[in-house]
Amino acid sequence: MSDSSSLDQAASFIARRASEDRAALSMALVAAGQGNRAAFEEVYKRTSAKLFGICLRIFTDRQEAEDALQDAYVTIWNRATTFEPTRASPITWLATVTRNRAIDRLRARKVTVTAPVEEAYEVPDTAPLADAALMAGQDAAALNDCMASLEARDAAFIQQAFLGGATYAELAERDAVPLGTIKSRIRRALLKLRECLSE
Amino acid sequence: MSTAPTPLTEDDIALAAELAMRLLSPADEAQARARMTCDAAFAAEVQSWEERLMPMASHLAAPPPAHVWEKVQAQIAPAASQDRAGPVRFWQGLSFVSMAAAAVLGVMLINQPVPAPQPTSAPMIAALSAEGGNAAVTASFDASNGELIITPVSLNTGKLYPELWVIPEGQKPTSLGVVEADKPTRHTLPPELRALMASGATLAITPERAEGAPGGNPTGAVIAAGKITVI
Predict the structure, then answer these.
(1) N or C end of chain A: smaller count of CB under 10 Å?
(2) Would you say A96 and B54 are in contact if contact means Cβ atoms under 8 Å apart?
(3) Are B124 and B141 a contacting pair, CB within 8 Å?
(4) B198 close to B178: Cβ distance less than 8 angstroms
(5) Does residue B172 sit in helix, strand or coil?
(6) In Å, how far are A78, B104, B203 from B108, measured between CA atoms?
(7) Does B154 contact chain A (CB < 8 Å)?
(8) Chain A residue with the nearest C-alpha to that of B136
(9) Which domains does chain A have, with CATH numbers?
């Protein structure tokens, strides 16, 4: 009994910390949008490890990941005025800008360089959450549960596309499956995922 | 609550997911992205997908080397004169915002059938910033045909309407008309107003009633201003 109540206390402490961290990050990002460089540095300090993790997942080459991260933060500085703290969570906004910039770079590069095709899809990542403070831990747990409710292959496709930046065409080529088949599978799986998350 | 939004179909929801995931081919992606600009419900669904899916990256983290931050700092334009934009600087020294706008508008202008550049008809731009240095509105003016394009970036006039003024150096404001707060507007200026659009003149916005300020004089406080620059 006392165990569970102290667990609850710990959970509520963590939740409070997480929400304070998010509020502080939101404020720093808004201030950065107003041209405040110190606030922008604060945004960088709080988020660069997470955003570098995203870049490293898209570019396995470290140098390319560093270039993508640099590009992402310059874009964040230039676009910070468009961040709306009442509508978006700051870390999702930052991670989305970063992921989109990194994917743009990846696809621009592929025009001239043929990227190697990855051989296998990986098992959906259900690793314990190392950095739950910024991304709400319960969101990640709910997503992991719902991903686990999908067919393993569909979940792997979704994960590869989201974390690796693969298009339908690339997934189809990698898996030697017709484009239409992969498209309808993933669409169906995504709708199922949405339904599961809304429960 | 004025107009009930059209509910999204399952196809729309799946398309929003595909766009957030970046699964689409370049052509399909461009089409879906264009839809975001005119369909708020669809745009909101794309954002919801980003929120839904981003926790997939929650386990990713790796500290970057220190030189990344140094390079970022070197790349973002120095804003020494912007950080503390007081009332005087508010009207001057908009070089940082102007340069950013020049880059954006330069691209926009390339896409338009601008006649061969002549000294008198070079495209002009202005970035109107709010107090504090935030970009509020960008303006581009093509002197060869009198076309003025006003693009709001972040403009809030509450229940009033944004009226645009041109203030030639040392003269009083002349109205260029009421513009939209939330979407770009295109105006063709009559010859007598075109003559006022020159490098060094200031563009400003004041909140006014829907039909514009009475008597042709601004009544509201200036909420955004910037100088015209010839590109």
Answers:
(1) N
(2) yes
(3) yes
(4) no
(5) coil
(6) 18, 7, 20
(7) yes
(8) A81
(9) 1-116 (1.10.1740.10), 119-199 (1.10.10.10)
**B68 to chain A, closest Cα gap in Å:** 6
Whether residues B79 and A187 touch (CB distance < 8 A) is answered with no
Sign of CA dihedral A180, A183, A187, A190: positive
To which residue do tokens 């303006």 refer?
B139
B 29-58 residues with CB < 8 A to A: 47, 50-58
Positive or negative torsion for Cα B107, B22, A87, B82: negative
Whether B159 maps to a domain, the answer reads yes
B-chain residues near A131 (CB < 8 A)? 58-59, 61
| B17 near A CB under 8 A | yes
Test A125 with B21 for CB contact under 8 angstroms.
Answer: no
Residue B10 sits at φ, ψ, to 5 deg, of -60, -35
Sequence-separated (6 or more) residues with CB below 8 Å from residue B195: none
User: Which domain does B2 fall in, by range?
Assistant: 1-73
Mutation site for A-interface testing, chosen from B19, B51, B59, B67 by largest number of A Cβ within 10 Å: B59
In a mutational test of the A interface, the residue from B72, B83, B131 whose CB has the highest number of chain A CBs within 10 Å is: B72
Last residue of a domain, one of B73, B98, B113: B73
Q: Tens-of-pLDDT digits for all 231 residues of chain B?
A: 445 566 899 999 999 999 999 999 989 999 999 999 889 999 999 999 999 999 999 889 999 999 999 999 999 866 444 443 333 333 333 444 444 554 554 444 444 444 443 344 566 777 777 766 666 777 777 777 787 878 777 787 877 888 888 888 777 788 888 888 877 777 788 888 888 888 778 888 888 888 888 877 887 777 888 878 776
CA dist B94 and B92 (Å) reads 6
